[in-house]
Design a protein that fits this description.
The protein is of the alpha+beta class. It contains 7 helices and 7 strands; from the N terminus they run αββααααααβββββ.
């Protein structure tokens, strides 16, 4: 099976699953895994040399949206080889290679940054919560949780892998109990 399709199938095991995260300070974070977040979580939107992704990123294009991209993955028209061949692959390689069912689900049992302040590191992340897990090699997986004012619900904004603690350092953290 194509590796990109495998990543999609693994993510779909979580589709519509609700996660509730109780912090040691008494706060609760809850969110739902949604199929429409898959493209962004994987970082595919950054591969702008792939024509299909260019069309996806064009907000005036109503045809090439998340469901269309996913249909292309399922049909083998957007593949792991195409993703890895992108000149922008290095921009997403850590995220892409660390994106797995296990990494997504273990991040539900980890420490969290609350009231994430992106200006401390000049980040565009909109998440107010950042779940993080320190790996054995002193690297970190992060899952950003943001609030959608339209639906009044939290959603997974981003997943990424970082070889430093720059997204955690100087932030307010709550540790698992």
């Amino acid at each position: 099976m194509d590796d990109l399709l495998q990543k999609y199938n693994d993510f779909m095991r979580l589709n519509n699953c609700r996660a509730e995260y109780l912090l040691s300070n008494g706060q609760t974070i809850d969110f739902v895994y949604k199929e429409e977040n898959f493209i962004h979580l994987l970082g595919l939107h950054k591969l702008i040399d792939i024509q299909l992704i260019q069309l996806f990123n064009d907000k005036t294009n109503k045809m090439v949206q998340t469901k269309y991209i996913i249909s292309r993955i399922k049909k083998g028209k957007l593949t792991d080889a195409m993703v890895r061949a992108s000149v922008f692959y290095n921009d997403i390689s850590e995220r892409y290679e660390n994106f797995s069912y296990d990494n997504l689900t273990t991040l539900n049992y980890t420490d969290a940054v609350i009231n994430f302040n992106p200006s401390l590191i000049n980040s565009k992340i909109k998440s107010d919560y950042l779940l993080f897990e320190e790996r054995i090699n002193k690297e970190y997986n992060h899952l950003g949780i943001a609030f959608d004012k339209n639906s009044n619900r939290r959603y997974i904004e981003t997943f990424f892998h970082q070889d430093t603690d720059m997204y955690i350092k100087g932030q307010t953290s709550v540790y698992k109990g």
